[in-house]
Structure prediction request, 226 residues.
Amino acid sequence: KAGVTQTPRYLIKTRGQQVTLSCSPISGHRSVSWYQQTPGQGLQFLFEYFSETQRNKGNFPGRFSGRQFSNSRSEMNVSTLELGDSALYLCASSLSTLGYEQYFGPGTRLTVT
Amino acid sequence: QQQVKQSPQSLIVQKGGISIINCAYENTAFDYFPWYQQFPGKGPALLIAIRPDVSEKKEGRFTISFNKSAKQFSLHIMDSQPGDSATYFCAAKAQGGSEKLVFGKGTKLTVNP
Prediction:
């Protein structure tokens, strides 16, 4: 079974631009979560989607948004990019049953200049 | 507010030795505790996980010890190998409908040959 895939793997943007990142979960997984990873703050929860509905949201500004499609694929968008948004953005998927296990993709490395 | 505290920040072990990483949590609603292993340039990979109804779980060379009363859990890597050199993250998930994971800050493990 294929793992979680994320595209693109690397991205360079300038301040003020916006960016869209994509995540395809493991086949059959209906829950998708997004995390931001930085050296200073570590892994921080952004938001979680299940059946196209946002189920939980982390403590990030409204510039960060996401959505999930009917096939469980998910996208996250960051508008008006700031230098501090440079990070590894990770997507994780799970069955969202009592199994609990979440599996991460390789991430998208975003650099804001 | 850091809900999961992980120590040490870095750890150097000789090949064949035992690596021990500790985590402590505050939220008594946490009911699932996974450990992830991350190599440079990769996403975190689920290593092993435990629930509070057991005090220990072993998978190969990896063991989780769990102390519910002390709100602490630890990862033991027996017979550590150079290939185990990576960053290890403990995490916790609260009971309920969300898949949100709260992560420790990570431990960079180096196993010298």
Q: What stands out?
A: The two ends of chain A are 37 Å apart (CA to CA). The mean pLDDT of chain A is 94. The interface with chain B takes residues 4, 31, 33, 35, 42-45, 48, 50, 55-56, 58, 90, 92, 94, 96, 100-107 of chain A (CB under 8 Å).
